[in-house]
Backbone:
């Protein structure tokens, strides 16, 4: 239950002289600090951090936590983010001594258990993707995209081909074109048809010898599997390009089809989505990539290798792009993914995809009666409804936003709204496989009830949350990005 | 296990959808590319079997919780107060996501705002973002910021005493942009000579990347370096150790333009290298080029103080290819850990951790060099790490010997620095005791 008194910032709780941590006395003979560190390097004072006690810190952050919706407390159908249940056993396994405390530069002989785990995970991801070469290094999906584009660039450089372009469908995640730019390439947009599929004509027109990679999300961001994929792969490969698969939507196709089998040359996984790693309020994720054997030499190193008995890190490859982050990778996230995959096994993963798709289609069958779903009445793991009719019916300017906000009043997290950009007033709904039919029914009923409510109720929603409709324009025009003692008065006055 | 699969449910749901079988829902996938066999993956394992399996794997590793760890090089075995674990294991934090709906994410948004403030207090910089992946890629992002800010795309100058992996990452990131990375070596004491550095800076140089304390634990003459850089319009990217700022001058005070760090030391366990926390703070003028999320203060429609994601027009989900970076998912949970850690430590706690690191490092440095087999590679002052050379030329043998005695004693430098073939790098945090340091020094002398 929310403590309504607890509205202060940690800095406002600070009182001089309070402290929470006491270290043991220093047990080595001490020397005057100025003899060890020349005074020109020393600060006059330690940094002006808050001074608080341990009970205050605990109460402060615990109260903050109660202001969040989360998967453990609420249905969280945030499309494209796969907010499935995060198994507690995986948290415990990733926190075992011997796992959570290993130093990244321990000698390989002292980390054989960890290397065995990571080697097995490489093999699992290769099997699930149908692409044999794996790098576990990238730290997030977008980081995986960037890494793979660098791999592609190195591949073409090695072949002496000048291919500066990357093709990206207009329905793609924003990370795709942003990654292309960071890799020093030019992102060119390919149109989608009204069904949300790749416009083959437009693709053919733009596909020339300057194109390195076609980045594709399949199932796409509209929750549809693009069956033209075989033809698309032929076209791209004929012209010497590579296909990158954005693996954000792998939850829909685990064990049903494999990117490597439908023509992808490179892809990333989002273990925090597909393999249940908790999202951590914004991260960590991980973004392991899988590529064809031909592209293996370009992958970042290290990669775990094995002769069947011992495991070791292979640190160099002459043609490797180098490194995209320090140390091995987001191992904590990878350990959870490993536990998740093992818990299900191959057959179980297929059932995960089936239930994700079943739940999404079931919810779609409920929702389509009162909100249009432009892409039809079948989907994979998610679907995109449009709130456009409410514009006319109720005179709402931003109906998707208003419905999203009103859902919060009923204890549901909102779907992803205004994405993909190709659907007006988009509401992207991904229920995941770990929700019951009763939850889906309750959500659909609530959504229906909301579409029937008076406009005023929606326009000012949410009504029951701690805050409502923050002034985002003010936040952007007069940015206040940190607390400062002088700002205290105005902040206080508003409480 | 985590599925609702009673036959009745499935049948009724299929009926409502209007299909005969679950398979029909996959009709969108062309038969030619269907996988017609089960995935060849071991399992399924029940919880008890998974526990057994994982414990077996964990026990095969040598765990730094049970043996003294003198390994550092960017990842350190610091003390983590239990409150950090407690807060980070609140479900409402770790099972939520990016606060797209501020009304039901005030916990994350306020914690992020507090994190940003704490990083500014720590560094003396104007602005901090909500976090990046880890120190290395944060350094690369900072370098890219200086390139777009100065419109100098030709050259990036890095001290050779910057973490070797960070230098590799920067090189990987700027390769597509066709910029040149130039390295400048160290002087006699281990610190870079500002005059030598100045000679490498030209009007196409976007930035100078300085790690201080550097990869070998040594202190750089940062003020002099900033002076020669700024005289040529070159921005200074400072890679700092957050713990060191308990006693060292803050980057904001001596003139760094951007400050980046590996935030693992602020309450995140070692985890074999990640996930960690990329800290990036900068001067106000870089704000519009800052990558990643930002939490900003505002008021809601009833006038109540609150926080939202702000300045999102810098970001990929709005700007696509015109964004300042492709970053989407960051390290929210580890920014939270850092916020809790810094709140718990406060000024006096952080100062004490830093002070003990310096004292214990000095003690270890003197112990190991007392007998003559090892000599310091660099004579200059160090913070919590130092490099020594084995006059007998058998670093690997010595480390192997120490390992047999149950000590992770140090890192051979040769693979990163061929010129330091007989060298090793040793880190001593506040967690090491005098007894452990004595055992360590003895083990390296057998």
Residues:
């Amino acid at each position: 239950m929310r403590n309504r008194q607890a509205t202060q910032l940690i800095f406002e709780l600070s009182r001089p002289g309070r402290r929470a941590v006491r270290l043991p006395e220093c047990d080595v003979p001490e020397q005057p600090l100025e003899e060890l560190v020349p005074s020109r390097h020393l600060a006059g004072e330690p940094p002006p951090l808050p001074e608080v006690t341990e009970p205050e810190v605990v109460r402060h952050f615990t109260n903050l936590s109660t202001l969040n919706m989360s998967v453990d407390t609420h249905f969280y159908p945030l499309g494209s983010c796969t907010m499935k249940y995060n198994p507690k056993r995986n948290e415990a396994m990733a926190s075992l001594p011997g796992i959570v405390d290993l130093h990244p530069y321990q000698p390989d002989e002292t980390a054989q258990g960890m290397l065995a785990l990571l080697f097995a995970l490489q093999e699992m991801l290769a099997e699930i993707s149908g692409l044999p070469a794996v790098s576990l290094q990238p730290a997030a999906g977008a980081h995986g995209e960037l890494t793979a584009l660098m791999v592609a660039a190195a591949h073409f450089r090695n072949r002496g081909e000048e291919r500066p372009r990357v093709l990206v469908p207009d329905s793609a995640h924003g990370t795709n074109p942003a990654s292309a730019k960071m890799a020093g390439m030019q992102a060119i947009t390919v149109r989608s048809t009204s069904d949300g599929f790749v416009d083959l004509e437009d693709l053919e027109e733009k596909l020339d010898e300057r194109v390195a990679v076609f980045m594709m999300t399949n199932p796409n961001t509209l929750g549809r599997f693009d069956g033209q994929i075989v033809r698309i792969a032929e076209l791209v490969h004929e012209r010497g390009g590579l296909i990158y698969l954005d693996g954000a939507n792998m939850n829909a196709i685990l064990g049903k089809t494999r990117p490597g089998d439908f023509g992808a040359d490179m892809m990333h996984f989002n273990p925090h989505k597909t393999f249940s790693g908790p999202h951590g309020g914004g991260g960590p994720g991980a973004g392991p990539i899988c590529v064809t054997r031909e592209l293996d030499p370009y992958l970042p190193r290290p990669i775990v290798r094995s002769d069947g008995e011992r495991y070791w890190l292979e640190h160099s490859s002459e043609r490797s792009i180098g490194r995209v982050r320090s140390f091995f990778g987001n191992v904590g996230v990878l350990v959870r993914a490993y536990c998740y995959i093992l818990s299900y096994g191959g057959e179980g993963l297929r059932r995960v995809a089936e239930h994700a798709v079943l739940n999404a289609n079931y919810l779609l069958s409920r929702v389509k009666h009162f909100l249009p779903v432009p892409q039809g009445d079948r989907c994979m793991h998610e679907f995109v409804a449009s709130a456009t009719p409410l514009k006319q019916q109720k005179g709402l300017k931003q109906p998707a936003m208003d419905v999203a906000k009103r859902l919060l009043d009923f204890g549901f997290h909102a779907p992803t709204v205004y994405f993909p950009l190709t659907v007006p007033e988009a509401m992207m709904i991904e229920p995941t496989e770990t929700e019951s039919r009763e939850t889906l029914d309750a959500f659909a009923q609530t959504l229906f009830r909301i579409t029937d409510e008076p406009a005023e109720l929606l326009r000012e929603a949410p009504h029951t949350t701690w805050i409502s409709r923050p002034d985002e324009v003010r936040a952007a025009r007069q940015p206040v990005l940190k607390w400062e003692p002088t700002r205290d008065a105005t902040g206080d006055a508003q409480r | 296990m985590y599925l609702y699969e009673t036959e009745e449910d499935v049948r009724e749901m299929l009926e409502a959808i209007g299909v005969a079988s679950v398979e029909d829902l996959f009709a969108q996938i062309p038969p030619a590319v269907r996988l017609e066999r089960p995935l060849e993956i071991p399992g399924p394992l029940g919880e008890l079997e998974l526990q057994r399996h994982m414990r077996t794997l964990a026990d095969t590793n040598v765990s730094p919780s049970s043996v003294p760890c003198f390994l550092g090089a960017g990842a350190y075995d610091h003390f983590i107060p239990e409150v950090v674990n407690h807060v980070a294991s609140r479900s409402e934090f770790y099972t939520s996501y990016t606060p797209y709906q501020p009304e039901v994410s005030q916990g994350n948004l306020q914690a992020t705002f507090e994190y940003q403030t704490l990083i500014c207090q720590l560094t003396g910089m104007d602005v901090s973002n909500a976090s990046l992946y880890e120190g290395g890629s944060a350094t690369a992002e900072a370098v890219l910021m200086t390139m777009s800010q100065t419109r100098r795309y030709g050259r990036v100058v890095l001290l050779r005493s910057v973490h070797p992996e960070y230098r590799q990452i920067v090189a990987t990131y700027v390769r597509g942009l066709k910029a040149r990375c130039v390295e400048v070596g160290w002087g006699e004491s281990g610190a870079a000579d500002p005059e030598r550095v100045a000679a490498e800076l030209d009007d196409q140089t976007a930035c100078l990347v300085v790690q201080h304390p550097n990869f070998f634990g040594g202190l750089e003459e940062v003020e002099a370096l900033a002076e020669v850089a700024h005289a040529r319009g070159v921005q200074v990217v400072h890679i700092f150790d957050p713990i060191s700022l308990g006693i060292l001058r803050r980057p904001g005070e001596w003139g760094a333009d951007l400050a980046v760090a590996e935030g693992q030391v602020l309450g995140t366990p070692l985890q074999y290298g990640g996930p960690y926390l990329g800290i990036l703070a900068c001067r106000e003028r870089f704000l519009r080029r800052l990558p990643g999320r930002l939490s900003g203060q505002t008021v809601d429609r009833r006038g109540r103080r609150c926080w939202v994601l702000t300045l999102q027009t810098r970001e990929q989900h709005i700007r696509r290819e015109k964004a300042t970076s492709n970053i989407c998912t960051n390290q929210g949970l580890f920014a939270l850990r850092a916020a809790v850690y810094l709140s718990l430590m406060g000024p006096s706690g952080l100062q004490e951790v830093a002070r003990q690191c310096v004292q214990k490092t000095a003690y270890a440095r003197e112990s190991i060099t007392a007998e003559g087999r090892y000599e310091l590679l660099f004579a200059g002052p160090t913070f919590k790490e130092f490099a020594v050379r084995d006059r007998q030329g058998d670093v690997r043998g010595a480390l192997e010997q120490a390992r047999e005695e149950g000590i992770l004693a140090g890192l051979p430098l040769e693979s990163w620095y061929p010129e330091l073939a007989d060298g090793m790098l040793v880190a001593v945090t506040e967690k090491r005791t005098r007894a452990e340091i004595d055992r360590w020094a003895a083990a390296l002398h057998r």
Remarks:
- Residues 331-367 of chain A form the longest helix (37 residues).
- Chain A touches chain B through 205 residues (CB under 8 Å).
- DSSP finds 16 helices and twelve strands in chain A.
- Residues 488-495 of chain A have pLDDT under 50 and may be disordered.
